Amino acid sequence: MSRTLRLWVLLLGAGGLAALFAVACAGMPRFGGAWHPYGDRAVHAALAHRTANTIASVNFDQRAFDTLGEESILFGAVLGTVVLLRQTREENRRQPEPARVYPAVRRYALFALPVTLLIGLYVIAHGQITPGGGFQGGIAVATALHLLYIAVDYRALERIRPIGRYEVGDAAGEAAYVLVGAAALVSGAAFLTNVLPFGTFNTLSSGGTVPVLNAAIGVEVACGVVVLLARFLDQAVEIEETP
């Protein structure tokens, strides 16, 4: 195929896509109007599966396969960071020197640490019935651990952050999501179909597989962010290049 022909194929494809896009935009509901077909269908599907949080239903039930892709992006980023920022033979590890922490900062960080950790765990556990979920709660949990770095020093953070275990937790969260989807195949349904009992509406056990997938995301995000920050902090605090 010549270059001119390839260009014409590209232009025809782009023109067809633009025409379809224009038709789709023309058929969208008016901004601020009372008719929202996609939103109405999403709410109806969430209620049918006893999930009070429609966003959680969309993420972990109606389009759970897309969420697997989003989770895998973070997992791949963590894996790439671990490989690229590993210690090389030209680098030496030195003990970080403790820095002075202002008493007000120490008091605030030590107070905020358990509160932030509790909030993060609460957001993960209640993701199917209240705003939030595994993504948001996982970030809060990872942030809570690093408040110890702000309140004390880097060595205190290292004592509660065994990297190997968090790397295993990151992989376990990713694997758990895939295994839940595979369990649906065993039951004869499609991958990631919501096959568990839906339970009682607006309770922690409601939503079928939604709370299970939400918890898997929470574990993967929390552990993944801890590992990411650990690798970057190691480069900034501990590792120095040999002269």
Question: How are the strands of the largest sheet arranged?
Answer: 1-2
Mean pLDDT: 90
Q: What class would the helix/strand composition place it in?
A: mainly alpha
Q: What value does the Rg take, in angstroms?
A: 23 Å
Q: Strand-and-helix sequence, N→C? A: HHHHEHHHHHE
User: How would you characterize the largest beta sheet?
Assistant: 2 strands, antiparallel
**Span between N and C termini?**
55 Å
Q: Approximately how much helix is present in the residues?
A: 55-70%
> What coarse outline follows from CA principal-axis ratios?
globular
Short descriptors:
two-stranded antiparallel sheet, 68% helix, mainly alpha, 243 residues, 9 helices, 2% strand
Structure description:
- The chain is an all-alpha fold and 243 residues long.
- 68% of the residues lie in helices and 2% in strands.
- A two-stranded antiparallel ribbon has the order 1-2.
- Helix 3 (54-62) packs across helix 9 (210-238).
- The model has no long low-confidence stretch (mean pLDDT 90).
Short account of what is shown:
The protein has 243 residues and is mainly alpha-helical. It has 9 helices and 2 strands.
What is the topology?
Layout: H1 3-26, H2 37-48, H3 54-62, H4 64-84, E1 91-93, H5 103-125, H6 134-151, H7 154-159, H8 163-186, H9 210-238, E2 239-241
Antiparallel strand pairs: 1-2
Helix pairs in contact: 2-3, 3-4, 3-9, 4-8, 4-9, 5-6, 6-9, 8-9
